[in-house]
């Protein structure tokens, strides 16, 4: 099936979709393809972006034709192992485009996080084939913006909401385990697939493999000179939420093999003395590439992301178990190690940032918050205090998905990198 035929069959607004996609090839070429010395194995990920609304969407349609379902998620807390166990697809939809923000603002307040507005706009405008092919959205009660947005989104697509605790005490972890088991029952009911020890073990294996490959890639960024641009790794982290998990893990491992050879030869993409930056803060969903691009254009190199489009997504694996019930308990346990600002207190995040900065030999930390994101912008104060105590230079940036503040951000990033040199 040709792409246009596919999109029409998904009830997309073809005119708006053309307009939305028209800028992508130029931006992608200048930000990614034109940079010299990229690893050859990036070719696979470039190819996926080159047909971002084609190849994978066709696979999802084919999956549905075989009777499986597609579930879309917006948070790393949603247990994708359970969806994989049922033979269905889990697609992370965190939207990062400015294009759909005005549409989102038709139903949501303007002074709200752009991630939520962009998400809503994608559905209202019917320009995201992943949204269109989805049977369900799986939301969560992480921040107030998302929590209330699910109620509105449910008018356009069935939305199931998982309730997240806000603390990590014993009662909270028991509550979350119950929530995960209820979710498992919902998935059984929707997919008509009984979850067993065998299929859960397979779901855990698949998703663990994907996370292990991303962890391997992250560890290679400790090398100096840096063997890969941070922007390339950000792209891979973003695609981790879309692609087929097994194929994706294979491709990430091939890239790691190539990078290991580069490290052996002491070959890098930046000079050995290029300032090494760790990013912390809110997720940067596709196609939010602005901050990484500005840092690397200014001569720095991003060596890690303490974000959900980075380390938080893959740092912990699910422990295997013998019985199905214990597997579900372990699936619930894993994300509770994710230190999201939606939790209180969230001191584990401070430890994560400092550990990552030291392990990755970062010269400085950039704390990036999306505008109007209260949990992360409030927590910025604590992050800054901790980094001061640890004598780690840091810079706080706040932005949205638009291009309007590029000049201002560039000035601040240039000055920060200059100070680190
Ligand atoms: S930042 Fe928090 S709410 Fe957002 S994806 Fe990560 S865990 Fe979920
Ligand atoms: S970036 Fe902040 S406000 Fe936006 S969805 Fe995530 S936690 Fe909520």
In short:
By secondary structure, the protein is an alpha/beta fold. Helix content is 53%, strand content 10%.
Amino-to-carboxy terminus distance:
53 Å
Main sheet properties:
4 strands, parallel
Chain-averaged pLDDT: 97
Envelope shape: globular
Question: What gyration radius follows from the Cα positions, in whole Å?
Answer: 21 Å
The succession of helices and strands, N to C, reads HHHHHEHEHHHEHEHHHHEHEHHHEHEH
> What percent of the residues sit in helical stretches (DSSP H or I)?
40-55%
Number of helices: 20
Q: What small-molecule ligands were found?
A: iron/sulfur cluster
SSE-based structural type: alpha/beta
Taken as a percent bin, the fraction of beta residues is 5-15%
Strand arrangement in the largest pleated sheet: 2-1-3-4
- Counting DSSP E segments of at least 2 residues, the number of strands comes to 8
